[in-house]
Specification:
alpha+beta, 3 helices
């Protein structure tokens, strides 16, 4: 966790193949999951936010998920406070499509 602006910028650009100036917050966690750093571009320059937990560890989101992980603001807030997000992908509801009635809806008929 000794990485600073330039090395985190390089990791985002070359390893993650993302644009560090996109406005996204990029999260880096050490192996023991006791500290984390966030790299963020606010429009005027790079910002680093870092935190070391006094006790416990940061949540392991899902080590078997090999795609890009995107956290919502609420999930990031929970993660940053040290909450357990390990079941995030297991308990998240599956995507579903709302079905509409296929026939014409007649005036005065109720749809349940």
């Amino acid at each position: 966790m000794r990485a600073s602006y330039d090395s985190l910028y390089y990791k985002v650009k070359k390893v993650l193949e993302k644009d560090p100036t996109s406005g996204h917050l990029f999260l880096f966690v050490n192996r023991r999951r006791t500290s984390c750093k966030c790299l963020y571009y606010d429009g005027t320059g790079l910002v680093i936010i870092s935190k070391r937990l006094e006790q416990g560890t940061f949540s392991r989101i899902n080590p078997l998920f090999n795609k890009e992980i995107v956290l919502t603001e609420a999930e990031f807030g929970l993660f940053f406070e040290g909450a357990n997000l390990e079941k995030r992908f297991i308990e998240s509801p599956k995507e579903f499509k709302k079905s509409r009635p296929t026939g014409p809806c007649q005036e005065g008929s109720a749809v349940q």
